[in-house]
Design brief:
Number of helices: 7
Shape: globular
Order of helices and strands: HHHHHHH
Number of domains: 1
Distance between the termini: 48 Å
Largest sheet: none
Strand content: under 5%
Helix content: over 70%
């Protein structure tokens, strides 16, 4: 074969490039949802339903992060729980950052504002977001270990689609049922961790 027509193997993407692309993507998300949208919404950003949605955004990131982590099998339940914890921390970190930036943006754009969001409702929504992130991360971990990481991602897409539809249909009631939802998610998380432990024992 002529040397000029010999295919040149692609160089593997460097870790630095992947890291820079990830930072760029999440930076754009933070600007869009943490600054631009709250600035456009103004006082409407304090809508309890909207703030509850922001508080629960961690589920969008925690589940897929767990599915990716469990492409490899953990050596123990402790390591599996640590991976889940990292995934949940990642998702919740993004959600809280967006929420905090949004609240700060509205405050800075309206310096004479004398009221803020309902902190009682918001705290319940934050708790719901945390427990839901743990539950979805544990679910993704169990499915990835029991079947495959790809199956876990597919299952998460279905769950997230159902959650989005439920939010659009009953968004007004989300702040009021956040505390009860947090209890349900906590129970679900315990069940998924038990299933994960059993899967590790059979592995």
């Amino acid at each position: 074969m002529d040397e000029s027509t010999t295919p040149v193997p692609e160089q593997p993407q460097s870790a630095l490039v992947r890291y820079a692309r990830t930072v760029f993507i999440y930076g754009l998300l933070l600007i869009a949802f943490g600054i631009f949208l709250p600035w456009r919404k103004g006082l409407d950003f304090f809508d309890p339903a909207l703030l509850s949605a922001y508080a629960c955004l961690g589920v969008v990131f925690a589940g897929p992060a767990a599915a990716q982590a469990f492409e490899n099998q953990p050596e123990s339940l402790a390591q599996a729980l640590a991976w889940i914890g990292v995934a949940v921390g990642f998702g919740e970190g993004i959600a809280i950052a967006m929420l905090a930036c949004g609240l700060m943006t509205v405050r800075l754009s309206m310096p004479y504002l004398v009221f803020g969001p309902d902190l009682a409702l918001l705290s319940g929504s934050i708790l719901l977001g945390l427990t839901a992130s743990i539950a979805l991360a544990a679910l993704a971990a169990w499915i990835a270990l029991r079947y495959s990481s790809g199956t876990a991602r597919l299952a998460l897409r279905v769950v997230l689609f159902v959650l989005v539809v439920a939010f659009f249909l009953r968004s007004r009631s989300l702040p009021q049922v956040a505390s009860e939802g947090a209890v349900v998610c906590a129970v679900a998380a315990i069940v998924f961790v038990i299933l994960l432990r059993n899967a590790l024992r059979r592995a």
